[in-house]
Amino acid sequence: MAPAASTSAVDLTSEILHALSDKDPVLSAETFPQVPFESIKAALDRLASRSMVTYEQVEREEATLEPEAEVIVSHGSHEARVFEAVREALDGLSIQDLESKVGDKTVTKVGQGKAFKEKWIKKDGNRLVALVDSINDVTRDQLRVIQETRTHDPKILADLKKRKLLKMQKVISFTISKGPKYALEMIKEETDLTAETLASGSWKTATFKPYNFNAQGADQHSGALHPLNKVRHGFRQIFFEMGFTEMPTNQYVESGFWNFDALFVPQQHPARDLQDTFYVSDPPKAAKPCPVSAADKQDYDEYFRNVRQVHESGKYGSIGYRYPWSEDESLRLVLRTHTTSISTAMLYRLAGQRQDGRVPPARYFSIDRVFRNETVDATHLCEFHQVEGVIADYGLTLGGLMEFLEMFFAKMNVKDLRFKPAYNPYTEPSMEIFSYHKGLNKLIEIGNSGIFRPEMLEAMGLPKDLVVFGFGLSLERPTMIKYGISNIRELLGHQVDLNFVQNNPAVRLDKD
């Protein structure tokens, strides 16, 4: 007798073993027809892991009757019911009488058509009369066979499926055979080697459950790095490999002096307007630049005056912008629009470091947040991350900058760069960097670069023969390229899918 669906796992494994003692192999669909698939599969896996049984999965399609077909099996097909109603009326039936006798308008309508087609009835005036004494209800017979066997001739199945009398569904069963360690009872297997089993010596005769090295580990529900942090980690490793030192970037609010003036950005520049910048209203202004530590011996007052003179009347070979420079405007507080404000301060401190009377070469980088009053779209946010690098050395050229950028981006497998001349107030010459985005199917800007202007550097006290490269790119756009994201709002903002954050692997920037 087949076990009920509620049979426990232990009872089911025992039932399987005893079924194999009488017949080998057995079919699960025949021996355990009422047991759910999940239960039989779990019991078989338990036995197979101990080599007590082997099994093969068998997939087949079975036909299942629809509710209308169940009615046909019980009461006959539509055409047979119409014929019987007409045959029983010796003088025939009118259409109205037929509907009344059959009791179902749908059965009457469908049955008439098929009965006419089979030439079981005909129309005589306004009445229907029978043409034969008896019929063979083929449809009912076919459905009975399908009800019992779950199958039939493919052409018949296709026809009945077309009439929406049955549906096909996939059924999975198992062919079960005895395994090399088959027995009628399962031996209890120990899962742990305890102090008690060692002390008693029972471990010598105990049977231990083997390790399943193919089993997946339990989900630990651990935290996950955001894809931006994964790519950020990759960028940091590239910078460290190329000999850069990381700059401190924990100052989100800067004065206009460091964010704009020290970078030779005029106070009338559109980038300093409210349309492009977030200003801080309280406190109304910052203090003048000053040393950040006791070891900082630079003359910040002189530097402040130099910057003012470069803007107003020019200095160090520059004619300046020729406008009345405002100290109050320079000390307004602003959410930094770029991390170049940090780079400028680092370069000024570098000017105070001398080795044998000479400023040493240096390489700095930073990766942190910046803020722009941007219109949000598929590739722009008002808050994003900037990746910035600065190289200060002697004898540098524009060709060297282009070569370095190609080497830098090649380390993250971004190749075939395109450079476009651009304008930056603090670099000359300047270049925008482009790369092809397969998802957007177009070139997108991934960075900006240039050589810092000599009047900006000489105002700091840096020597004339020291050349400084500067380049910056967003962290978001390379992340979009690496993860195939076409809309930046899927990376940051209200559209972020937490499953995307948790399940995406870390990107190897040096691999596809």
UniProtKB/TrEMBL annotation:
Pfam families linked: PheRS_DBD3 (PF18553), tRNA-synt_2d (PF01409)
The EC number(s) this enzyme carries: 6.1.1.20
PROSITE patterns xref list: AA_TRNA_LIGASE_II
Domain of life of the organism encoding this protein: Eukaryota
GO annotation, cellular component aspect: cytosol; phenylalanine-tRNA ligase complex
Chief location category: cytoplasm
Locations listed in the record: Cytoplasm
GO BP term, example: phenylalanyl-tRNA aminoacylation
One example GO MF annotation: phenylalanine-tRNA ligase activity
Keywords recorded for this protein, A-Z: Aminoacyl-tRNA synthetase, ATP-binding, Cytoplasm, Ligase, Magnesium, Metal-binding, Nucleotide-binding, Protein biosynthesis
InterPro entries, per database record: aa-tRNA-synth_II (IPR006195), aa-tRNA-synth_II/BPL/LPL (IPR045864), Phe-tRNA-synth_IIc_asu (IPR004529), Phenylalanyl-tRNA_Synthase (IPR002319), PheRS_DBD3 (IPR040725)
Residue intervals of the Aminoacyl-transfer RNA synthetases class-II family profile domain: 229-505
Catalytic reaction(s) noted: tRNA(Phe) + L-phenylalanine + ATP = L-phenylalanyl-tRNA(Phe) + AMP + diphosphate + H(+)
UniProt key word Glycoprotein: no
The protein's required cofactors: Mg(2+)
PANTHER family listed in its UniProt record: PHENYLALANINE--TRNA LIGASE ALPHA SUBUNIT (PTHR11538:SF40), PHENYLALANYL-TRNA SYNTHETASE (PTHR11538)
Annotated family: Belongs to the class-II aminoacyl-tRNA synthetase family. Phe-tRNA synthetase alpha subunit type 2 subfamily.
Subunit structure: Tetramer of two alpha and two beta subunits.
Protein name as annotated: Phenylalanine--tRNA ligase alpha subunit
Organism: Canariomyces notabilis
